[in-house]
Design goal:
The complex is a heterodimer of chains A (221) and B (269). Chain A has 221 residues and is mainly α. Chain A contains 9 helices and no strands. In chain A, helix 3 crosses helix 4, helix 5 packs across helix 8 and helix 7 packs across helix 9. Classes of the chains: A mainly alpha (221), B alpha+beta (269).
C-alpha cells in the first residue's frame, strides 16, 4: 500500500511483469496529475489486482467453459468472478491466487447452473450447453475395472468432448487437476470439500473418463 | 496395502501427491499386483495424454476487453463502483439442469476415502505453507529471480535485510562446510515478506526462508517432500526456518544441522 504522504504520482504503467494490457489503462489515468491520494491508493490496489488476477484469465475461462459448456456464458461468469474478486481483494491473504479466484468462479458458475435448472421446469428442453450436442455419447457407468485394455489414441477435440460430457462433480475435479493444474489441497479449497473427497472423486472421474475414452470414436470430420 | 486402497492411491501417486514413504508403499503394491499394475499403467497413460493435449482455452480478446473495462482505473468510479459492472444478464433461458442424481451413487466409499486421505498432505496450514515455500523456491530458480543481493559475505547479506523484513535473519557462512552463501532475497510467503537466504551446494540451490512465524512451531526439523523437493521446517530463537532444495534428503539434513548449530551462537553475538 502506498504511503499516504507520497505525492500522487504516475502509475508505473506496464512496468510490472504480468500487467499486460493493464498497462494501457494505467497509462491513461497516469496522465491525470490531479488524482488525489485516495485515487492513488485505488490505482495501486487495482494495479496489484491486475498483476495477480489477470494471469489466471485463461484458467478461469477454461474452467467456466467446462462447467457451463457454453463459451458466451463462460465469459459472463468470468467477468462476474473478477468483479467479485476485486470487491473482496482486500480480504485476500493468499496463499495462491489461482485457487482463490477459481473458488469464486465456481460459485458464480454454480449459481448459473441453479438458475438454469429453475428455468428447466418452466420451459423444458435441452438446455444451454450447446457445446455438448445431444448426439454426444454421454458418459457411461464404467464396466468393472478394465484391466488390460490400455489406452486408445484420441485427438484433442475428442478428449475435450469426453471431459465435457462427464457429470458434475467429476468434471470439475478432473478439469481442476489435469487442465488447471491444481494440487489436491487447492482442489479441496476450490470445491469446499475435504481432500479425501477430492481423491475419491478424481479416482471415479478417471475411471469414467477412461471407459468413455476407450469406446469413443474420434471426432475428426 | 490392499487393492481397494491402491485403487485411490495410484492416482495420488500419478499426481505426485504422496510423500516418499507412501509412494514407495503404493509402488510396492503395484509391483506385486498385476491388476493394479494394469490400472496404474492405463491411468498413467491417460494422465500423460491429457497433459500433452491442448485442453486449455485461451480467453478471447473480447473477455480481456470486458474485464479491462470493468477494472479501475480504466473505469474508476463508474461501472465498477456503481455495480453496473455486473455482467450483461445471462442471455438465454435455461432448459436443463446438469444436476442429475449423480452425487449419491458416485462417491466411493466415504470411509475408505477418509482413511486414505490421511496419508496425503492434509489441508493443514503447515502443508499449505510447505507448498508455498516450494513455489517460492521454484520461482526463485527462474532467471534473474534468485537473489536481490549477491554476496558471499555474511556481513553484506545480513544488513541488507534491515528494514525489509521484521526479523534479523541469521546469515551464516558455511562455505567451509560445503554450503556456499550466494546471497539474499526478499520473498513473500503467506502474504508476508520473508527473508530468503540463498546457498549453493555443487549445482543445487538451497533457499532458507526465515520469518517470525511461518507454520506450526517445531523444535526439531520436520521433513517432507513437495513436488520432488525436500523441505525442512524448524523453529529456533523465536524464528521459523524453512529450507528447500532439490538436494537429497541426507545432504539437506546436514545443511539443517549446520545452520541449527550456528544459530544460537549468531543470535547471541
Amino acid at each position: 500500500m502506498l504511503d499516504r504522504s507520497n505525492a500522487p504520482s504516475r502509475i508505473p504503467a506496464g512496468a510490472r511483469r504480468g500487467a499486460g494490457e493493464a498497462g494501457a489503462a494505467a497509462a491513461m489515468t497516469g496522465r491525470d496529475p490531479m488524482a488525489d491520494d485516495a485515487d492513488t491508493d485505488q490505482h495501486e490496489r487495482a494495479r496489484r489486482f491486475r498483476e495477480a488476477a489477470l494471469p489466471c484469465l485463461d484458467d478461469a475461462f477454461t474452467l467456466a467453459r467446462y462447467l457451463l459448456r457454453n463459451a458466451a456464458d463462460a465469459e459472463d461468469a468470468v467477468q462476474e468472478c473478477y468483479l467479485r474478486a476485486l470487491r473482496h481483494f482486500d480480504s485476500y491473504r493468499g496463499p495462491a491466487m489461482k485457487p482463490w479466484l477459481l473458488a469464486i468462479l465456481r460459485n458464480v458458475c454454480n449459481a448459473e447452473l441453479v438458475r438454469r435448472s429453475r428455468r428447466e421446469g418452466a420451459i423444458g428442453g435441452d438446455g444451454d450447453d450447446d457445446e455438448t450436442s445431444a448426439a454426444t455419447p454421454i458418459w457411461q457407468e464404467p464396466a468393472a475395472s478394465p484391466e488390460s485394455d490400455l489406452l486408445r489414441r484420441q485427438d484433442d477435440a475428442t478428449i475435450r468432448r469426453l471431459v465435457a460430457a462427464l457429470p458434475q462433480p467429476f468434471r470439475e475435479t478432473i478439469v481442476l487437476r489435469e487442465i488447471n493444474g491444481l494440487s489436491y489441497n487447492e482442489i479441496a479449497q476450490v470445491a469446499g470439500v475435504p481432500v479425501g473427497t477430492v481423491m475419491s472423486r478424481l479416482a471415479r472421474a478417471r475411471l469414467m473418463l477412461r471407459s468413455a475414452w476407450n469406446v469413443a470414436e474420434g471426432s475428426t470430420p | 496395502m490392499n487393492c481397494a486402497e491402491a485403487e485411490i492411491l495410484i492416482h495420488a501417486l500419478i499426481d505426485g501427491e504422496l510423500d516418499a514413504g507412501h509412494a514407495r508403499e503404493v509402488e510396492a503394491h503395484v509391483a506385486s499386483c498385476a491388476g493394479c499394475a494394469g490400472q496404474f499403467e492405463a491411468f498413467h497413460l491417460m494422465h500423460a495424454a491429457m497433459a500433452g493435449a491442448a485442453l486449455k482455452d485461451t480467453a478471447p480478446a473480447s473477455l480481456h476487453a470486458r474485464i479491462d473495462a470493468m477494472l479501475p482505473p480504466a473505469a474508476a468510479g463508474t461501472a465498477a463502483a456503481a455495480g453496473a459492472g455486473a455482467p450483461r444478464s445471462w442471455r438465454r433461458p435455461s432448459r436443463r439442469s446438469f444436476f442429475g442424481g449423480f452425487a449419491a451413487g458416485a462417491v466411493l466409499s466415504g470411509a475408505l476415502a477418509a482413511s486414505v486421505a490421511l496419508v496425503v498432505f492434509n489441508g493443514d496450514r503447515e502443508g499449505t505453507i510447505a507448498n508455498e515455500v516450494v513455489s517460492a523456491h521454484i520461482r526463485s530458480l527462474q532467471a534473474g529471480h534468485l537473489i536481490d543481493v549477491e554476496s558471499s559475505d555474511q556481513h553484506t547479506v545480513k544488513p541488507w535485510f534491515d528494514g525489509k523484513v521484521d526479523v534479523a535473519p541469521p546469515v551464516i557462512d558455511l562455505t567451509a562446510q560445503g554450503f556456499t552463501l550466494i546471497g539474499g532475497r526478499l520473498d513473500y510467503i503467506d502474504g508476508e515478506p520473508v527473508a530468503a537466504v540463498v546457498y549453493r551446494r555443487r549445482k543445487h540451490v538451497i533457499n532458507l526462508f526465515v520469518a517470525r512465524r511461518l507454520g506450526t512451531e517445531h523444535a526439531a526439523a520436520a521433513a517432507r517432500t513437495v513436488q520432488g523437493y525436500n523441505v525442512r521446517h524448524w523453529s529456533a530463537q523465536g524464528l521459523d526456518f524453512w529450507a528447500v532444495s532439490d538436494l537429497d534428503a541426507q545432504e539437506l539434513d546436514e545443511f539443517v544441522q549446520k545452520i541449527s548449530a550456528a544459530v544460537p551462537a549468531v543470535s547471541r553475538s
